[in-house]
């Protein structure tokens, strides 16, 4: 019997509901659409879904501006639809976690509307209202989505604080009534049977109560612009430091850890639910048992290329820093970042590397999070017309480049498309038909579908092709399921000097299984000698055709870009 929790052995799959599956053919993804794809997900071999926000929202930030925490966005369906989806997922052995946005609400949430009624409102203190200073905002803080972090409310003569868009006012978490109301919402979903939450932007929940001004000389647009103009690693590090100077008083306040402990207690009153934090800081694990169950290992993503040396350095640092009992969590893309297939791969090697990257996620110690569309190799789609932009970050970048910096329209569009997040949020490509089968041919989807649906990047075509990326994902996901060492085993890096390949051991004490994993990131083949106390390796998985029979760990042949997983057999 293994003593691991379901969320430690599970593979999570992020669904971006607006783009995943459109059940009613209106060009917008919805919950009935998700229900129709549960069989697909079960066959794919994932164990859990992270559903990006499905709550009622005016969609200024694609659902991350929540107007009601205990309901369903009408464009996506009803609470009854949600319950049906949850039951149908559970019936297939698939867990469901939701996206919990704690830092802010929508400006249209009833709490904020009440708060905005005036200085005497009963909910005034639920948000962060301050008087201006010298005819201007309370201080010089900026919003990470551009512009000042303070919005003036003429009726009451005060400013409210927003770390993100002005349509996303920050809640005042120092007010116990806010905590009580939000924990009620949390219990609403837990009572319904939801399996946990991914916690949005937790590091920004508290800010310096003294409102200490920042001392950076650059504003956020200036930083972004210089970031694009720079190429050297040293310059990038310097700019990161300046960014840190700019926002330092607006995040990473110590009180957030008390809050996470409080939330953990709410969760722990239920059987076996999970919290995953959108943060990189190991501190959110607390002592390993009293804050969040998992924190994304975002550091792994922060590289131009995923090289074996980079991955090893990441793993050594990350795993060593975890408190006792803490469990790692890895991902390579999501709805805020470039797609995996676009970011780390190029040219002819792209298809081969995509397979190596999936294998990396499934072979590293920790819970993997995959992003919808990744399994068919969907790539970023850079929109050519700013009128099509839906992400207000892209809109802000475009406007600033055009209006403040005077860039020509074409260049500003290209840059804003690249920097904005629409590129990785386009509708899922299900079939070799108009709109990639996402919605009917005569309907305009909420974001354009990438035209490469016609070139094989769609589920139906890949279903029909046994050599497709989709089949590779399925085979590998199912192989992982059958290998306790890959799900739960301890990890040891091998051949730490190798530039071309990553080699590691995963060993599970309970089942006694040890797996040797070799991921060849290069176009060179190798014959590798592993000095291990094992007689042979029984291949569990390979991306390439191999000679039948067991392999010899001291003379293991690895083809270019091969993914090899073998179970080691003792003498
Ligand atoms: C992080 C989310 O992933 C992102 O999409 C959102 O814009 C911000 N938090 C604000 O909620």
Architecture overview:
With 571 residues, the protein is of the alpha/beta class. Among the domains are: 52 residues, Oligo-1,6-glucosidase, domain 2 (Alpha-Beta Complex); 35 residues, no CATH class; 83 residues, Immunoglobulin-like (Sandwich). 31% of the residues lie in helices and 15% in strands. The protein has 18 helices and 18 strands. It has an 8-stranded parallel β-sheet with strand order 9-8-7-3-2-1-11-10. A 5-stranded antiparallel β-sheet has the order 12-13-14-18-16. Helix 8 runs antiparallel to helix 9 and helix 13 runs parallel beside helix 17. The longest helix has 17 residues. The radius of gyration is 24 Å and the shape is globular. Bound molecules: 1-deoxynojirimycin.
Percent of residues in helices: 25-40%
What's the arrangement of strands in the largest beta sheet? 9-8-7-3-2-1-11-10
Give the overall silhouette. Answer: globular
CATH topology of one domain: Immunoglobulin-like
The assigned CATH architecture of one domain is Sandwich
State the helix count.
Answer: 18
The unique ligands bound to this protein are:
1-deoxynojirimycin
Question: How much strand?
Answer: 15-25%
Instruction: Using the coordinates above, name the CATH class of one domain.
Output: Mainly Beta
List how many beta strands DSSP finds: 18
**Uncertain stretches of 5 or more adjacent residues:** none
Radius of gyration: 24 Å
Structural class: alpha/beta
How far apart are the termini?
25 Å
The named CATH superfamily of one domain:
Golgi alpha-mannosidase II
> For the report, how would you describe the main beta sheet?
8 strands, parallel
Average pLDDT metric: 96
């Amino acid at each position: 019997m293994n003593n691991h929790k379901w969320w430690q052995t599970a593979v999570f799959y992020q669904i971006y509901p607006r783009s995943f599956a459109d059940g009613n053919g209106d060009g917008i993804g919805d919950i009935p659409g998700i229900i129709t794809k549960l069989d697909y997900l079960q066959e794919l071999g994932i164990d859990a879904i992270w559903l990006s926000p499905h709550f009622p929202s005016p969609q200024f930030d694609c659902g991350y501006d929540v107007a009601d925490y205990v309901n369903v966005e009408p464009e996506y369906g009803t609470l009854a639809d949600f319950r049906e989806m949850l039951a149908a997922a559970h019936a297939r052995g698939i867990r469901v976690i939701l996206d919990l946005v704690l830092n802010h609400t929508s400006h249209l949430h009833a709490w904020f509307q009440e708060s905005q009624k005036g200085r005497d409102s009963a909910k005034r203190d639920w948000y962060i209202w301050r008087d201006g200073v010298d005819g201007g905002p309370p201080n010089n803080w900026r919003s990470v989505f551009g512009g000042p972090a303070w919005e003036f409310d003429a009726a009451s003569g005060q400013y409210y604080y927003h770390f993100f868009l002005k349509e996303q006012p920050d809640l005042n978490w120092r007010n116990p009534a806010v905590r009580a109301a939000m924990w009620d919402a949390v219990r609403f979903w837990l009572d319904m049977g939801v399996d946990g939450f991914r916690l949005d932007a937790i590091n920004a929940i508290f800010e310096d109560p003294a409102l200490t001004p920042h001392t950076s000389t650059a504003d956020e647009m200036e930083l972004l612009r210089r970031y694009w103009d720079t190429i050297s690693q040293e310059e990038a590090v310097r700019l990161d430091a300046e960014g840190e100077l700019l926002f330092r008083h607006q995040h990473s306040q110590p009180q957030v850890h008390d809050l996470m402990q409080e939330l953990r207690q709410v969760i722990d009153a239920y059987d076996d639910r999970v919290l995953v934090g959108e943060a990189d800081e190991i501190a959110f694990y607390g002592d390993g048992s009293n804050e969040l169950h998992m924190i994304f290992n975002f550091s792994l993503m922060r590289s131009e290329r995923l090289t074996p040396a980079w991955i090893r350095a990441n793993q050594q640092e990350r795993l060593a820093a975890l408190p006792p009992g803490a469990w790692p969590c890895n991902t390579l893309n999501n709805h805020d970042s470039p797609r995996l297939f676009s970011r780390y791969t190029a040219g002819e090697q792209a298809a081969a590397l995509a397979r190596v990257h999936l294998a990396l996620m499934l072979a590293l110690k920790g819970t993997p999070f995959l992003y919808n569309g990744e399994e068919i190799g969907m790539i970023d789609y850079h929109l050519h017309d700013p009128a099509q932009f839906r992400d207000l970050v892209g809109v802000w970048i475009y406007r600033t480049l055009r209006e403040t910096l005077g860039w020509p329209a074409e260049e500003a569009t290209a840059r804003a498309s690249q920097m904005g997040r629409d590129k990785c949020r386009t509708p899922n490509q299900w079939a070799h038909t108009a709109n990639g089968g996402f919605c009917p041919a005569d309907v305009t989807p909420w974001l354009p579908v990438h035209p490469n649906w016609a070139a094989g990047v769609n589920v139906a075509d890949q279903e029909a092709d046994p050599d497709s990326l989709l089949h590779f994902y399925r085979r590998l996901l199912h192989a992982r399921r059958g290998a306790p060492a890959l799900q739960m085993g301890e990890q040891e890096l091998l051949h730490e000097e190798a530039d071309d390949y990553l080699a590691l051991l995963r060993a599970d004490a309970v089942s006694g299984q040890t797996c040797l994993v070799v991921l060849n990131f290069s176009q060179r083949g190798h014959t590798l000698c592993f000095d291990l106390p094992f007689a042979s390796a029984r291949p569990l998985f390979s991306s390439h055709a191999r000679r039948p029979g067991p392999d010899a760990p001291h003379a293991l042949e690895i083809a270019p870009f091969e993914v090899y997983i073998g179970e080691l057999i003792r003498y």
